[in-house]
Amino acid sequence: MAVSYYYARAALALALGCALAAAAAAQSQWVRAHATFYGGADASGTMGGACGYGNLFAQGYGTRTTALSTVLFANGASCGQCYKLVCDRKFERTWCKPGVSVTVTATNFCPPNWELPDGGWCNTVRAHFDMAQPAWEKIGVASRGIIPVIYKRVSCVKKGGVRFTVNGHDYFNLVLVTNVAGPGSIRAMDVRGSADWMAMARNWGANWHSLTYLNGQGLSFRVTVTDGQSIVFAKRRAA
Predict the structure, then answer these.
(1) In the 8-state DSSP scheme, what is residue 124?
(2) Could you report how far apart the first and last alpha carbons of the chain are, in Å?
């Protein structure tokens, strides 16, 4: 019988500092897209998702979240990014709420619907946002179901610092990174135990893994966000 040694579940709240928040890679130009909604009026149906954040309320993301189409999701590389959306009244005045915007965090993937000839709104080439219903209703009238929007990527404002949730055993360590301010998304990640830095690989969404035996070692993480800035988080004991 195989015996597994599991890390204790951890959520390490570590301060990013002002430098990371100020270093966000934000686009200056507005881009046109469309937006739908899902998850119900209380957003309960948005929990979990392809970024792996689990309970979005517990993780601090709340109801201001969105699923991204293939071209925006980028196989999980966009998890945690923030977008500002406005309903485009140039094309739809009846169903757009005037003078308002909403900022959402990417927490999920909106897959193509291949039962439709072109894959539907979330096909592989179209930029599309499938937003949590409460966020969508900030800019659109819910009885419509779909609205034209303009959007741009913006800096994420988060409170409480970056959190690392460590799970795994022996030679497999899975680390979920949440609550990242500034760029919001992670380009690369490294871990260091008692030896030198070792590169981690994106497992899925915002989860990164290491195949090195790290039991009982104090762990440091080096996170490189999508603007290229690297931040080191000092050692914490895994188990």
Answers:
(1) S
(2) 22
- The CA R_g of the chain, rounded to the nearest whole Å, is 19
Per-residue confidence (pLDDT) for residue 233, from 0 to 100: 92
The structure tokens 């993301």 sit at 61
pLDDT digits (tens, 9 = 90+) for 2-34: 112 222 233 333 334 434 444 444 567 999 999
In whole angstroms, give the CA distance from residue 108 to residue 50.
Answer: 5
* 3-class secondary-structure state, position 45: helix
pLDDT greater than 80 at residue 47: yes
DSSP-derived 3-state class of residue 20: helix
In this structure, how many other beta carbons lie within 10 angstroms of the beta carbon of residue 64? 18
Q: What is the pLDDT of residue 235?
A: 75
List own/partner pairs for 87-93 with CB under 8 A and 24 or more apart.
87/35, 87/139, 87/140, 87/147, 87/148, 87/149, 88/32, 88/147, 88/148, 88/149, 88/150, 91/148, 92/147, 92/148
* pTM: predicted TM-score of the whole model, two decimal places: 0.87
Domains and CATH numbers, the chain: 28-154 (2.40.40.10), 163-233 (2.60.40.760)
